[in-house]
């Protein structure tokens, strides 16, 4: 194999690689030997077919397979010989006009990871804000839980439904006078004002009472998940069977027993554990943001453009998704466009932090054990349909890049924990409101880093946890898309997304190959309307 470097510019590299016909032909011979015992041909005993006849029968396929293996090995040898650390999978192109029996000329283009001096971890100072899980916080959590378990009780027949009430209906939908699949239902419970149904549906149920019949006129949203209903006006003939009103939930031993627990005290114990986990999560989020800000402020190096572009695209897709659920989607998207370069800077920061944490982890022996990796794979597999899980596991086990992507978030968390252990930490007790305010203080989308002129003592909002993929769910034509983690109040698109992206090192999730055939994701919930 012959190699010639044709480009060396920044982190970009390009090589012309020549694989000789002799090498390819030798690989064909190896392929012939490997399949010879299984080849059957009239007039020959099993395994005794002459190699020249095998070549004649399977020559094209054998040559193609040999060429692919030669290319794979050639690229690996190139990486080893030139001591290259590719940022992403190299782009390999076979020169036009290649014919069997001739040398194969390849162009291998890639971006390499930057050479990073082993980062110093001396002098890290962090403040750990802690919040006690007191009785008041525990009871607030129980009350919140009780509100989520809202019960409804039967109302008088003459009761007119109001916002917050529940109506039990039968419905039959039609578009242009024609019924559509899934457009009918019986005994459907609708909480008026919950926002669970397509716009306008719930509003038109205000004032109805048991026994009423009404035709509701609505328009399916443009982003509705059923293609033939997107943007279409529709009518639903509704029969109101019952109106129910919210029932008071008394938090006592009986309430606890309705949940399968012995007493209210036992419920408090369980809720205290949950509150402590939440508060510990806030503490960690605050410390991590401070840590990443210190690292970003003291390190500056070139990052691979393709990694930045991939990270930027991921951020931008999330931004556009959120903007599409604003009150005025077009205006929200136009506002985003003004700050495109700011988000690209955020992508640069995230990639740089990811590379920096990786370098620190390698320098100090931080590892993800095989047991931890196995748990990661099994947890990720649960996101898919049962019939797809084993194929997903096999895919990750066979694809090094997918495995690395799955491993990255845990690895980075372990590096962060390692740095916490090395840092000088001071403790301060605060209220939940204070720590949440501290986390959300930096909501202007500022990108911290060398040369920003900032004191790096501000903290971005916590990144909202990405919703895990779910098995395919049956679509209800009445139901509207909803955001899985919709906050009670939604920040403006720029601020919310910037704070999510800014202080999170780049670590992409593993995406299964087409052969894994994961279940389709359930329709995402729509974010709450901008206040």
Written account of the structure:
With 531 residues, the protein is of the alpha+beta class. It is 42% helix and 17% strand. Strands 6, 7, 8, 9 and 10 form a five-stranded antiparallel β-sheet that branches. It has a four-stranded antiparallel β-sheet with strand order 1-2-4-3. A hairpin with a 2-residue loop joins β7 (166-175) and β8 (178-191). The longest helix has 35 residues, at 264-298.
Spell out the blueprint of helices and strands.
Layout: E1 2-9, E2 12-19, H1 21-35, H2 51-81, E3 91-94, E4 104-111, E5 125-130, H3 135-148, E6 151-154, E7 166-175, E8 178-191, E9 213-219, E10 233-247, H4 253-258, H5 264-298, H6 305-323, H7 329-338, H8 340-363, H9 370-381, H10 386-398, H11 400-422, E11 424-429, H12 432-440, H13 493-502
Parallel strand pairs: 5-11
Antiparallel strand pairs: 1-2, 2-4, 3-4, 6-10, 7-8, 7-10, 9-10
Helix pairs in contact: 1-2, 3-5, 5-12, 6-8, 6-13, 8-11, 10-11
Briefly say what this structure is.
Helix content is 42%, strand content 17%.
Main beta sheet: 5 strands, antiparallel
The rounded Rg comes to 30 Å
Number of continuous helical runs: 13
Instruction: Give the helices and strands as they follow along the chain.
Output: EEHHEEEHEEEEEHHHHHHHHEHH
Q: Helix- and strand-based class?
A: alpha+beta
Shape: extended
User: What is the arithmetic mean of pLDDT?
Assistant: 81
* Number of β-strand runs: 11
- For this entry, what is the oligomeric state of its chains? single chain
Q: Approximately how much beta-strand content do the residues carry?
A: 15-25%
Distance between the termini: 64 Å
Proportion of helical residues: 40-55%
Low-confidence stretches: 443-501, 508-531
């Amino acid at each position: 194999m012959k190699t010639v470097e044709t480009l060396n510019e920044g982190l970009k590299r390009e090589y012309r690689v020549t694989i000789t016909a002799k090498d390819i032909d030798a690989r064909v011979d190896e392929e012939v030997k490997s399949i010879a015992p299984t080849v059957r041909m009239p007039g020959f005993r099993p395994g005794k077919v002459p190699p020249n006849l095998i070549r004649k029968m399977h020559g094209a396929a054998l040559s193609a397979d040999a060429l692919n293996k030669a290319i794979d090995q050639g690229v690996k040898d190139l990486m080893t010989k030139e001591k290259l650390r590719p940022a992403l999978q190299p782009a390999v192109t076979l020169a036009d006009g290649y014919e069997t029996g001739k040398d194969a000329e390849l162009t291998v283009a890639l971006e390499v990871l930057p050479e990073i001096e082993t980062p110093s971890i001396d002098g890290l100072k962090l403040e750990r804000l802690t919040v006690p899980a007191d009785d008041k916080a525990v009871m607030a959590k129980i009350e919140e839980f009780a509100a989520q378990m809202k019960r409804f009780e039967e109302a008088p027949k003459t009761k007119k439904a109001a916002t917050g009430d529940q109506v039990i209906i039968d419905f039959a939908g039609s578009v242009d006078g024609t019924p559509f699949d899934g457009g009918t239902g019986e005994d459907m419970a609708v909480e008026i004002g919950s926002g669970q149904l397509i716009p306008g549906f719930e509003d038109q149920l205000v004032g109805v009472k048991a026994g009423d019949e009404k035709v509701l006129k609505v328009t399916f949203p443009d982003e509705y998940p059923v293609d033939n209903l997107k943007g279409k006006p529709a009518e639903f003939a509704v029969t109101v069977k019952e109106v129910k009103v919210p029932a008071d939930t008394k938090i006592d031993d009986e309430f606890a027993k309705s949940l399968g627990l012995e007493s209210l005290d036992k419920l408090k114990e369980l809720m205290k554990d949950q509150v402590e986990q939440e508060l510990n999560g806030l503490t960690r989020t605050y410390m991590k943001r401070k840590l990443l800000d210190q690292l970003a402020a003291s390190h500056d190096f070139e990052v691979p453009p393709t990694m930045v572009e991939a990270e930027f695209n991921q951020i931008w897709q999330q931004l556009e998704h959120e903007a599409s659920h604003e009150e005025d989607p077009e205006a929200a998207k136009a506002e985003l466009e003004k700050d495109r370069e700011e988000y690209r800077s955020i992508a640069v920061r995230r990639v740089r932090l990811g590379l920096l944490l990786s370098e620190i982890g390698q320098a100090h022996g931080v590892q993800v054990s095989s047991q931890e990796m196995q748990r990661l794979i099994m947890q990720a597999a649960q996101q898919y349909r049962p019939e797809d899980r084993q194929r997903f596991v096999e895919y990750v086990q066979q694809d090094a890049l997918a495995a690395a992507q799955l491993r990255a978030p845990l690895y980075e968390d372990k590096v962060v924990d390692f740095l916490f252990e090395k840092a000088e930490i001071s403790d301060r007790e605060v209220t939940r409101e204070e720590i949440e305010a501290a986390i959300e203080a930096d909501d202007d989308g500022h990108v911290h880093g060398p040369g920003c002129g900032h004191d790096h003592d501000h903290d971005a909002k916590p990144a909202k946890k990405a919703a895990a993929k779910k098995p395919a769910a049956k679509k209800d034509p009445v139901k509207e898309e909803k955001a899985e983690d919709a906050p009670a109040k939604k920040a403006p698109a720029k601020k919310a997304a910037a704070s999510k992206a800014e202080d999170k090192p780049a670590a992409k999730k593993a995406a299964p190959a087409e052969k894994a055939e994961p279940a389709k994701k359930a329709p995402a919930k729509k974010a709450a309307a901008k206040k």
